[in-house]
Known about the structure:
This protein is mainly α.
Amino acid sequence: MIRKLRALVLLGLAALAAGCSDQALPEADGRGGDIAAGRVIFERKCARCHNVNGDGETVVAGRFPYANLIDGVWRSDGTAESIEKQIRRGRDPMPSFERKLTDEQIRQTVEYVRELTGARKEAAR
Ligand code: HEC
């Protein structure tokens, strides 16, 4: 009896774990969706240089002070326009993403960078 119960519990746990690993890509539905989508893009395309938290403490970008995106210090002015410009054009050693991301993806990434910068509420999410 107890054995059967244990097997059932284990089965349940396995089903739960399978459900959790099934990560769907977030959809762009309003601002929250944009930020979620931007986060996925940031983690895939930007975090290797800017770090997941945006502080730029990586092997590639660590010696460039402006690679830190969350210290409130900008080479440009930190507006959405200038962030978008940097993403489109790049700036050595940062590559241009003009042809690697769609306009929609660039917009979402800008939203996320601004969220990272302003809020730093990582823990709350
Ligand atoms: C190969 C490494 C690399 C990758 C990949 C990269 N960056 Fe950068 N990025 C840098 C470096 C280094 C700087 C600082 C350059 C400088 O001194 O202007 C920078 C600067 C920036 C700036 C300008 C900051 C300011 O002070 O004005 C923004 C915004 C930015 N990156 C966003 C992104 C986003 C968004 C992505 C992903 C789509 C990305 N970067 C991908 C290396 C990278």
